[in-house]
Q: What sequence folds into this?
């Protein structure tokens, strides 16, 4: 009797924990996104020409890791800091919003509509279309530089993987700001000492060439 009681008590304690240990709850993710949408847009597409980065389609691992770094102030983000505090954003919410955003696909071309599609359907679909405008820069030189220093982690297609973020499809101005903050040692990239590493010594024009190259890699429909 005692053991059975003990066992069911143990089960009662463990089951709820097991139930939400790993499986993300996408409905909750959608709800949390209500807060994020104020800055990053309803579909996580970002805005204000990259003041707010695109977060949709980024890997769930990277989003989780990043939200936790903001929360711990390892990566400084003043606008977001209050939203990432434990009371506002517990670990389960982080897991759910990361899975929710990772699953959003943003097409780079307007969809083909059917005559029967109503205005709302069209508007909703158009709000998801995301194409980073071409920027100045030498595309060929950017490709050579990118391939010599960056593909091992960010991938040939610049889409990243796991803890490495995508670069293709992200706002150019946002990427420039991040690269300069890596060079200044203000945000850790993937190096042992702040400011050292693959971006060290690269001139602004060289960074700009890579940004120009990234804008040629973003048509997911072409792949
Ligand atoms: C008040 C505006 C604001 C709100 C609300 C906000 N963010 Fe942000 N977020 C920003 C800004 C600004 C940056 C860029 C910071 C920088 O330049 O380093 C950012 C950066 C990020 C990044 C890093 C992207 C990258 O590629 O490096 C992630 C991930 C992110 N936000 C997720 C979220 C999520 C999830 C929420 C909702 C829980 C959210 N944000 C709510 C303003 C906001
Ligand atoms: C050894 C692996 C590695 C190499 C090589 C590498 N990166 Fe990264 N990169 C990362 C990781 C990991 C992050 C995420 C860092 C973080 O947020 O803590 C990152 C982040 C970035 C970001 C920020 C993107 C965002 O959404 O916040 C940019 C821009 C970037 N890298 C550009 C480059 C460029 C350009 C090169 C080549 C010159 C390069 N990286 C080489 C691993 C690497």
A:
């Amino acid at each position: 009797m005692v053991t059975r009681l003990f066992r069911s008590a143990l089960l009662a304690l463990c089951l709820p924990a097991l139930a939400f240990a790993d499986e993300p709850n996408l409905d909750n993710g959608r709800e949390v996104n209500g807060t994020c949408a104020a800055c990053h847009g309803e579909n996580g597409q970002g805005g204000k020409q990259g003041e707010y980065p695109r977060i949709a389609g980024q890997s769930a691992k990277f989003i989780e890791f990043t939200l936790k770094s903001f929360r711990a102030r390892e990566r400084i983000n003043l606008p977001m800091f209050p939203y990432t505090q434990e009371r506002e954003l517990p670990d389960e919410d982080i897991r759910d919003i990361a899975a929710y955003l990772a699953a959003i696909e943003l097409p780079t071309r307007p969809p083909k509509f059917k005559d029967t599609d109503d205005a709302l359907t069209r508007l909703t679909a158009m709000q998801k279309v995301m194409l980073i405008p071409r920027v100045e820069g030498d595309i060929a030189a950017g490709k050579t530089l990118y391939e010599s220093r960056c593909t091992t982690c960010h991938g040939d297609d610049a889409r990243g993987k796991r803890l490495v973020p995508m670069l293709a499809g992200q706002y150019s101005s946002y990427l420039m700001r991040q690269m300069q903050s890596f060079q200044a040692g203000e945000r850790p990239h993937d190096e042992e000492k702040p400011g050292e590493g693959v971006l060290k010594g690269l001139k602004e024009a060289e960074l700009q060439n890579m940004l120009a190259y990234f804008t040629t890699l973003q048509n997911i429909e072409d792949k």
Remarks:
- DSSP finds nine helices and no strands in the chain.
- Residues 2-19 form the longest helix (18 residues).
